[in-house]
Specification:
3 domains; two-stranded antiparallel ribbon; 7-stranded mixed β-sheet; alpha/beta; 47% helix; 13 strands; Rossmann fold
Amino acid sequence: MTTESAFAPHTDQAAAVPRPAASIRPQRSVARHRAAPLPARGIRRHGPVTGLLAADALAPVLALALVPGPAWPVTAFALLVTGQLVLHSCRGLYRPRLSPSAIAELPTLFVLALVLWFAATEALMVYDSRYAIGWTALVGAVAAQALVGCAGRAVVREARRRSGARRPQSALVVGHGQVARRVTAALYERAEYGLRPVGQVGTAQVPAHGPARIAAARAAQAQAAPLPVLATLEDVSRAVVQNTVRHAVFTHPPASAPDTAALVDLFAEHGCRLWLVDSTVAGTVTPSRTADTDHLWGFAVQPLRTGLHRPFARAGKRAMDALLAAVALVAAAPVMGLCALAVRLSDGPGVIFRQERIGLHGRPFILLKFRTLCPANEHESATRWSVALDRRMSHVGSLLRRSSLDELPQLWNVLRGDMSLVGPRPERPYFVNKFSHSYPGYRARHRMPVGITGLAQVHGLRGDTSIEDRARFDNHYIETWSPWQDVCILARTAASLFRLGGS
């Protein structure tokens, strides 16, 4: 590798940043030298959450000391502290942030404290009227708790900022062009973010194939990138391991570029935290953002949600799938028995139809359905898009498809772990290969387990509808996944069963 250029902090001019030819670790030669990254065991991967929890737990203690009257029981005190932490967690006050501001959080702290104290005092007064307090004392306790909590969080954030400036964590910048260069320069020059860029990933070239293409990818970015250019997944994986990378900063949504699903998966497997920079208005925070939007030197930035890449989320979704699928299989057993009998009497032997579909990370599995039509051959089964209007379909098969009862055997796929209850619908290998080349973001659907139903399906995108729209809805679901969203989709799916549709 050769010597490249890095942008100065306040201009578009370049400053030399030499890079060794045999290593992907760049040497720092900008004005402000920063320490090498910590070894893996010394990196605090989850931020100052422990300190914030301690500060938030201390605030009600001090506020409670100011309340006149008899001392509250220990149980009430424990519930007050627990309620405080739960409300703050629901409001997102423990989310990772690059530029946190305790002062900006003060109105939120005050409102949450008011809600908490009002509920606590009302409940305690019902329990024993001796604990009733006046509005003046209530407002004083709320104000004290908010101010103490704000001060405590400010101390924790300042300590974290100083620690990050002294011992920054390694990061990769994902993207190319002027925005990526400016983000890299900001991370170099602004030590308070606690990130030290060690490489740039050009997503247009990931994954690249063949020596000539790899060399062309690196040469295309060598004139503009201030960091080693990582043109293949192997380069990225090596950089993550060698540099103990803990952060990846995307300068565009992953689903907007081809072949980035594998890149996101790689970062998730190594426990990297992902950030998304909003480049719609270069160098500024868009006016439509809320007051608590994070920023990276003026660029709006937010944690990039990667669906089930969070270990606890993955385990929680799998547990919910297994439990609900087992209950549904037992509850639906009589209905499934009647469906199987109707298919057997109407269409003959072979009640269950098996077909290869593509699941999580592109892995094939065998999907189960009640047979509604017997295809002429395997080629027709694998490549024919829709059989909804096929005249060979019996009345029983048509009814099963319109009512979606033919999908019930997929509960066994869910119980086996091949599928989830909610997720992008699985497709056949032929169409996955075809759509992946035709529609941006289609391949990125496979970073989430496929499902019986999904966000696209409850919006009517099933059967012969737009594949591009489906991919957009599926990727939106993945990037905004939550257990409550799954519950809502399941409820809407259950309601739709009473309206005959199907495909």
